[in-house]
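hey can u check if this looks right to u? its 113 residues, i copy pasted from the old doc so theres a chance i mangled smth
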Amino acid sequence: MEQTTLDFSKFKPIEQLKEIAMEQVEENANEEFKRVAFKSILQFAVNKPYVTANDVWASLDLLGITTHDNRALGPIFKKAAKDGLIEKTNTTTKSNRCSRHAGDVRVWRSLVF
């Protein structure tokens, strides 16, 4: 019997796949969502020592701002971190959105509080 060998060299590293996915959801998110979500992160960062997606979604929901793919919020947090407004912590909390089924969301530390 002949043994099969697998060539893993054609598979992309998981981090590269994550970056590609984040670029796609950001590219496809509507401009109003991106603008308002970023402003919301900024406001929370200025006024609170920590910010989570729970905070941002609550403000977006109040304003009636939506997007076709909720993962589009991830690249906006990443942009806020790159701009020096927040930094990732090793802490998570439970999501309060029904669609997330109490999954973990990252806690971000404000750098402008």
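The beta strands are 50-52, 86-94, 104-110.
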